[in-house]
Each structure stands twice: as C-alpha cells, then as structure tokens.
Amino acid sequence: xxxxxxxxxxxxxxxxxxxxxxxxxxxxxxxxxxxxxxxxxxxxxxxxxxxxxxxxxxxxxxxxxxxxxxxxxxxxxxxxxxxxxxxxxxxxxxxxxxxxxxxxxxxxxxxxxxxxxxxxxxxxxxxxxxxxxxxxxxxxxxxxxxxxxxxxxxxxxxxxxxxxxxxxxxxxxxxxxxxxxxxxxxxxxxxxxxxxxxxxxxxxxxxxxxxxxxxxxxxxxxxxxxxxxxxxxxxxxxxxxxxxxxxxxxxxxxxxxxxxxxxxxxxxxxxxxxxxxxxxxxxxxxxxxxxxxxxxxxxxxxxxxxxxxxxxxxxxxxxxxxxxxxxxxxxxxxxxxxxxxxxxxxxxxxxxxxxxxxxxxxxxxxxxxxxxxxxxxxxxxxxxxxxxx
Amino acid sequence: xxxxxxxxxxxxxxxxxxxxxxxxxxxxxxxxxxxxxxxxxxxxxxxxxxxxxxxxxxxxxxxxxxxxxxxxxxxxxxxxxxxxxxxxxxxxxxxxxxxxxxxxxxxxxxxxxxxxxxxxxxxxxxxxxxxxxxxxxxxxxxxxxxxxxxxxxxxxxxxxxxxxxxxxxxxxxxxxxxxxxxxxxxxxxxxxxxxxxxxxxxxxxxxxxxxxxxxxxxxxxxxxxxxxxxxxxxxxxxxxxxxxxxxxxxxxxxxxxxxxxxxxxxxxxxxxxxxxxxxxxxxxxxxxxxxxxxx
Lengths: 389, 295
Ligand SMILES: Cc1ncc(C[n+]2csc(CCOP(=O)(O)OP(=O)(O)O)c2C)c(N)n1
Ligand code: SF4
Ligand SMILES: [Mg+2]
Hints:
The structure holds two protein chains of two kinds. By secondary structure, chain A is α/β, with parallel strands linked by helices. Chain A has two domains: 3-249, Thiamin diphosphate (ThDP)-binding fold, Pyr/PP domains (Rossmann fold, 3-Layer(aba) Sandwich), CATH 3.40.50.970; 257-386, Rossmann fold. Chain A contains 13 helices and 15 strands. In chain A, strands 9-11-10-13-14-15 form a six-stranded mixed β-sheet, with helices on both faces. By secondary structure, chain B is an alpha/beta fold. In chain B, strands 2-1-3-4-6-5-7-8-9 form a nine-stranded mixed β-sheet, with helices on both faces. The A-B interface holds A 33-37, 40, 43-44, 47-48, 51, 61, 63-64, 66, 89, 93, 118-121 and B 47, 51, 57, 68, 70-72, 105-107, 109, 132, 134-136, 138-139, 141, 150-151, 153-154. Magnesium ion (MG) binds at residues 100-102, 129, 131-133, 140 of chain B.
C-alpha cells in the first residue's frame, strides 16, 4: 500500500457525511444547496464545516432546487469548480436544467440520494428519480456504501473536468445515506495528488467577451450533440483510470463495472447501488451451497459500458437483473438497458428482469438466494417480473 | 384565557390522533381553521408540517378531502381544483390551500404570485413557522434576522421577507395575519375570507417547538408575545391598499419574546436593541398606513 495511506484516518460516518467529507477534500469553489430528505445531512454537514472554518467553499441556499441548479450552471460557466446535492423531487424539479447543464458542458458534480418520487409521497430507496434523468447528458455513477460514496465523489470531479461533462453520483436513501460505517477519510495531500487544481474550460471572461448558449442554427445544435457524444465516449476510460489511480493511492480501486465471484458462474446477478451488498452476501451463501452464483455490479450507468457488459456476460448461462426502480409500461430500467446492450450477441445469457425492492420494500439475502434457485434454469420472459419477499 | 374560547364549539372537522409534535400550536390552528372552513371544501396541502399532521395514508385527521401536492406548486394546484369545481358547476365550494413558509415565501412564491395575479378564487393559508421544519429546521426567506437554523448556524444575516407587501402589490382582495394566541380573530378572518371571491391569503404564525427552541408548553405564550411585542402584528389588507389593524396596540418589549426561544439565545444587547428598533420602525410604518379596528 502507498505511503500516503499508511496513516489511516478512520471515522464513523453515515453515507451523506462521507459525501460531505469527500466534497470538502475536493474543495469546490461554489455549492448551492437546497434541503430535502434524505439529502439534507449533506447540506447540514457542509454548512457546519464552513461555519467551523474548515470549508472555504462559497455556499448558496436559494429558494428551490431549480435555482440551485441554475446558479450551479452559471457559476461553472464563470469558471469555477461546483458541487450540489439533491434527491427525488429536487432532482425532478431540476430536470429542465439538467439538460441545460450538459448542453452547456458545465462539469458540475452533483450528489443525488435515490428516493421514491411522489405521488404518493414516500421517502424510500428507489432509483427511478435518477434513472429517469438518463437522457439529460449527465454521467451517472451509483455507489454501494459510504466509503464508496466518499471515494466516488472525489473521482467524479476528475471525470467531470476531464470530459467537460456534468457527473451525478447516486446512493440509496437511508440504506447508504443514513447508514453509519467506518469510513477512511483520505489525507488532503492524497486528494491533491489525485485531483488536479481546477482549470476552467470555455468560460465567461470579460477580457474575451465570448458569450455562451446563444441561439444557434440546426446544424450547429446537431454538432453540439455530436461533441457531447465524443465527450461521453471518453468517460468509460476516464472512470476506469480514475478508479485505478485512486486505488494506487488508497488501496481501494474502482471501475465502471465490478465482478464479484463471477468465475465459472452459472447465474450472475446484475444490479446497482446498495442492493450489491446484499447480493454479495447471497452469492457467498449460494456458493457455500454449491451453486455457482456471482455479482456484476454496474457502477457507471451513463454512459453505459456496453462493451464491458457484453464481455462480462459472454457465455454466462443465466443473468438476473434486480431493478430497484420501475418505468411504468416498460419495466426495470437496468433490464431494458441490458437487453439493448446484449442484443444480437450469440453467447448472451438468458436474461431475467426482476422488479425487486421497488418503493424501498426489503430485499433480503435469503430472498436473493431463493430467486437464484427459482430462475437460473427458467426460460427468461422478455417482460419484467414483480418479485416479493 | 378568553372566556369565549372555553365555550368554543368544536364541529369536529379536525380529528384527534394526529401526529403534530406534542404542544404544537399548528394543531390548535388547524382545529379552528378546519371548523371555520366547514365541509363544503377541497384542500391542497404542500409538503410541510401540516401535510404530516393531516395524516399518512390511509389515515386522515381532517373531514374534507385533500390532495397532497408538490412543494413548489400549492397555489397552482389549488387553481386547478377551483377550475375543475367551476367546470362541474360547483363554484361555491371553498378551495383551501395549506402550505408552510418555505412552500410560500420561497419555492412556491412563483406559483402563488401567478395565482394572485389571476385572482384565483382560493383561500391560501400559510403556516409560518419561519423555517423548513419538515426537513429538520433550515432557514427560509421568512426566517428573521439573527435567528439560528440548521443552515444559519450563527444566525441569519438578513431580514424576514415582507411577503404581505409583495402580496398587497398584487392587489388581491384579502390578506390577513393571525396567531394561535388569538383564536377568535383566526376564526373570524377565515370566515370573512370565505365570503370573498378571489385570492385570499392568511398568514398564521406558528412558533415551532424544536425549530425555535421553545418549551413544550410555551407555543401559545410565544405566539401571544409575538403579537403583543409587535413583531407579528395582526392586521388585514383589503384590495392591496386598505390596511386595518385588528390588534391596535403593542405593549411588550421584544426581549420578552426573544428570551423564550433558543434560536435567539446567542444575541447580545446591541443585537436585541437593533431588533427592537426594527420592530418599532415597522410598527410605525404599518400603523400610520392602517385604520384601527381593534377586536
Ligand atoms: C421540490 C422539492 N424540494 C424539496 C422538498 C423537501 N421539502 C419537504 S418540506 C420542505 C420545507 C418545508 O418548509 P415549510 O414550507 O416552511 O413547511 P414546514 O415544514 O416548516 O411546516 C422541503 C424543503 C420537496 N418536497 N420538494
Ligand atoms: S416541527 Fe414545529 S411546527 Fe412542525 S409540528 Fe413540530 S412543533 Fe409544530
Ligand atoms: Mg416552515
């Protein structure tokens, strides 16, 4: 392990406070924040750090998330590093500006705590809030636990600034946001080694007088999307190298995907976020019973690492997607995405799409073990299946 | 206690078993408001303490139906309910809109302004507890100068937004303030508002026990001192121009009010003097504009 990480600062932090510590280390110049359960502890921790003199970031507490994102975009366009955080209704209220931020190529980092959207009102872990923003042009990463959330928010700044694209990092309401775990808070010099000082791209500068975002003709608008496509095409590699470099510094490496005990697996679960932790436990239980199960965790959802997904699932007999989200009329979003990614692949697995945990209902390791037994030899339905404990 | 209140007739429009914090004056206010509104009404509630007090599905602590709307759009939702009632030939059914100060002064101001400008026939009640209490007590633009909240740990550096003047500028037919310390005043204002067509906004001061750091038994006392010190004057504005004081005197020093609340306990004498001066000046400005009609 690297010398920088030999003096470990292990703290008991919940997922949201871990994010705030990561943000403090990345030291953005500006962060507009609006409260919403279960994101609020991120806001409160950053404000507490600032009032204790431990955070230099300029904070803004506007009247709504719409204004939070509008000010984030404008600050980023003025040439500074920007962070914000939200959840559910707040993210959805930002929707117009999410397209705007990506189109304006502002490398904002936003943390979203995945929560059920109204109506009816609920405060439960479910990923449809962010998954329904998948076409806005934001890079999307999903974190499994508080440590990963801290590590990922720091990596997100590097990815965003290298690609000049906004990055949204997500973790599940309560299961991660409020779960307290020992978290290693890296030293400032570790982060400074990893994350280059902010270098603004195209920005508003009175010396140049160049404006941003004014109306353009059809062809130029079309080109702007082709440029975004080119930027998105770099994100997979940027995510891989950021995760690798972070591993060299801290001993914890990450990639766009992660495989757990997939060697020789007959059945591989595919999922995102906190569900991965439960699947790991189920995989261990299944393996102990002689059932060759594994986990394929999707950490980078946008851009979807299609080539890597095809590689990871080639020749696997059966894959089971566990979707903690539901797109009405279609099914689980990850299931749909995976079907498209594996299209036309000769050695693709039988692909089951299970709606497990929608609305925050519990999905236990025992249930996942049961699902493995039930579905590994079954014919896969093209439609999603609702499963319950 | 006011003798009249002892004889208060409870029509049972607000039920027991609700989940307001023990001692919260918002439950008291809701009882009076729901009884004054009556049964021929449909409600809209924005996310806020009142949405929680109204009950989690399948329970409800009120007899009239409510739609639990979004934080930023209470007045727009209420407009939709009213237009649907009109389309159904039921224009006399009251549309009651409940929102907190966050949902009114901040994120919902745009939709409220638009509804007011259209003079939508709605009765909008803002429970003003001077902060976002539903999310654990952060500041709103209704939080007063120097008050501490989760997002203003050293005290808010700016004044409370004067929403009434903003609303008055829309020239809507009726705006009023009221307090759970003056329940007859509250009932009278709701009943009066019900008879008026167009946009009516009533702002109810709610001392928040955890948010303000007020003792469990001191909510009404704090609300009373807010009125009597003049920090929260009781008045009406009709047509945006005619101001009427409904409690014409101001008798208590501000410190009696401030000292009941932990959110002000860091204040020094100079800051208290500054608040007293602000209150005196605001009172002067308001009362010179108003016709006195003490009730
Ligand atoms: C778009 C959106 N952002 C954030 C929230 C989270 N939220 C729920 S209630 C609330 C604040 C409520 O404050 P206020 O309106 O003053 O009502 P109170 O809880 O104080 O009664 C917030 C920020 C939400 N529901 N919707
Ligand atoms: S949080 Fe405050 S305003 Fe809300 S119910 Fe409790 S005491 Fe009342
Ligand atoms: Mg409030």
